[in-house]
Amino acid sequence: MxxxxxxVMAACLAFSLVACGGASSTATSTSTxxxxxxxxxxxxxxxxxxxxxATxxxxxxxxxxxxxxxxxxxxxxxxxxxxxxxSTVAAVLVGEDGKIISCKLDVAQNKVPVTAEGTFxxxxxxxxxxxxxxxxNMKGASGxxxxxxxxxxxxxxxxxxxxxxxxRAIETNPEAHNGPVDADIAASCxxxxxxxxxxxxxxxxxxxxxxxxxxxxxxxxxxxxxxSSKLPADNEGEGLVQTDTTYAAVTTDADGKIxxxxxxxxxxxxxxxxxxxxxxxxDIVSKQDLKEExNMKGASGxxxxxxxxxxxxxxxxxxxxxxxxxxxxxDAEGHNGxxDADIAASCxxNVLDFNAAVEKxxx
Length: 363
What we know:
363 residues, alpha+beta, 24% strand, four-stranded antiparallel β-sheet
């Protein structure tokens, strides 16, 4: 109100001076206008800076995936081949000081045996190592008598309070399975943590303000299928083992409502011949990391890339409960995209696997 009155008075003064015909009055009017414009511009700039600062401030949610196909092999006289991918995923909640508030770890170890004739089971289902619990069966071979999920959870607790830089500085012992050397964690985790370290550091570095608070509960869910796989015999001798794993990092408040979520996906592809030869089709980069290189925009009816649609849908889930996610309606005749008008304009791609991963996270 004061600014409005000041502007009116300045305008009246300028009019009065111009009416008197003084050249100096024109200069005064121009100076006043310039000063007012400069003040307005400064105010706008300050407001923009404050808004940007507010956007950057707050608790952040992050997720990152590190994948390897090192265990893949072709069939030979000694036995079956194997199309295998190990994708380590870390989800983190990060404070405004850059320190980890909460961390969750899991691995999608998807193994597909391939015979010397190039055949494999296309109906395989997969569980993550966290889902397997005791069925992963590592306790017997563990020098400390702990199962994989117990050691992973201990390491996730160990990094709480650390920054990404501090996580990267964790020392490991290359002569002891690359387990951590710090006595505070070595008694609870002796398995390799190199991929954990990289995934946690990346997740912490790429974390964003998505609506979570420090009091929220962080969870992680994975869902894998091999629906796109093809047997060599059914595809002119060129087989394909493909496992698609969808990852959901989710935070919820005390009422069980989603406060933030992140959606990502990895596609592990292996060429398979009728002689049982198995070859990875290259490095595995998540769809969120691929960004425009995933190249879905051209085929999208709404002109949006995969990560844009995924982020829009993940944001749409904020405020919903596990029951709400389970009740999301999809269009079976339209790639199983969501039918709700509030999100259908921003996401038309299949959301079933993400919903499944979210439901696992919230179970």
